[in-house]
Design a protein that fits this description.
single chain, 303 residues, alpha/beta, TIM Barrel, eight-stranded mixed beta sheet, 8 strands, globular
């Protein structure tokens, strides 16, 4: 790691490389209008992603299904938490229709966590994959899923739909789980990725880590090693940014050079591709990640 880390007795000041233009532009506004008219949610908006302006202007978004209320309350996430109510059976079709309208070559679907559902929403993910394949057969589909509370049947339902990439974020290092993700389990997240590989080794798996929450370099290397051990192919590493005052503060900001070093360490450990940078998020430049591991991704057909 670079020696010149930003350290302060008080909360560190956001560095210049994390400043992004205010979102706007005709394509940005058009996409927002399409999403509102379709009654769809995006994690870009709900989680207050700093890349929303760039991605919306480029005509891409990460669809968030299963509503906009999460049954968990992670201490880093701005998505509204509470008691979710009901399911929208038409949501997967509307996602597919917007994917077709936008002409997306790669679609990313995530969700709130729905611990109130027996399968955690796995069947809705599967339906969304099938609907997209039906309307846009050349579009690759990446899913960013919750842990389904460790349900093997829920994961099997999802894998049977054959997504092109399965993503489940580790988010942080083992030691920080009680503070950052109090309702999640580090080992359960690793187990999901391992089981996904066992169910279908041809589906590339992906995970993500945030930095700046108080982890050490050694803990990050341990987490990357754990991901390699369960066959994870792709890793994203980005800077944690406090999205709301009530959520965890930033412990420190990493320099761009540190992200480059982390990417090199991850590939040295055995990860096939590491996307690391201050503004990197789980689905940031997701389509280009597919190109970087094109040998791992095979197009899937229905049936």
């Amino acid at each position: 790691m670079a020696a010149e880390a930003l350290v302060s007795e008080q909360r560190p000041r956001k560095p210049a490389w994390l400043k992004v233009p205010f979102p706007g532009g005709p394509r940005y506004l058009r996409l927002k209008a399409i999403l509102r008219a379709s009654g769809l949610h995006t994690v870009c908006e709900e989680a207050r992603c700093p890349n929303i302006g760039e991605c919306f202007q480029a005509g891409t978004a990460t669809f968030m299904i299963l509503g906009d209320v999460c049954s968990r309350a992670c201490h880093f996430c701005a998505v509204r938490s509470g008691q979710p109510v009901g399911l929208d059976s038409e949501e997967p079709l509307r996602v597919a229709e917007v994917v077709r309208r936008l002409g997306l070559r790669h679609a990313v679907i995530t969700s709130v966590t729905r611990d109130d559902l027996p399968d955690g929403g796995a069947a809705v993910f599967a339906d969304a994959i099938h609907q997209i394949r039906g309307l846009s057969p050349t579009t690759s589909v990446e899913v960013l899923v919750p842990d389904f509370q460790g349900s093997q049947q829920a994961l099997a339902t999802l894998i049977a739909a054959r997504p092109d990439i399965l993503n489940h974020n580790l988010e942080t290092v083992r030691r920080l789980y009680p503070r950052v993700r109090p309702n999640a389990v580090y080992e359960r997240s690793l187990e999901l990725l391992a089981r996904a590989k066992a169910l279908d080794p041809t589906i590339p798996t992906k995970s993500g880590l945030m930095v700046g929450l108080g982890e050490t370099r050694e803990e990050l290397l341990e987490a990357m090693g754990d991901l390699v051990a369960v066959g994870c192919d792709i890793l994203t590493i980005g800077q944690y940014l406090q999205p709301m005052p009530k959520l965890l503060p930033v412990a420190r900001y990493y320099w761009p050079q540190e992200f480059r070093e982390l990417a090199e360490e991850g590939q040295r450990l055995g990860l096939r591709h590491v996307e690391a940078g201050p503004l990197v998020r789980s689905s940031y430049h997701a389509e280009s990640q597919i190109q970087n591991i094109s040998g791992l991704v095979r197009r899937r057909t229905l049936g």
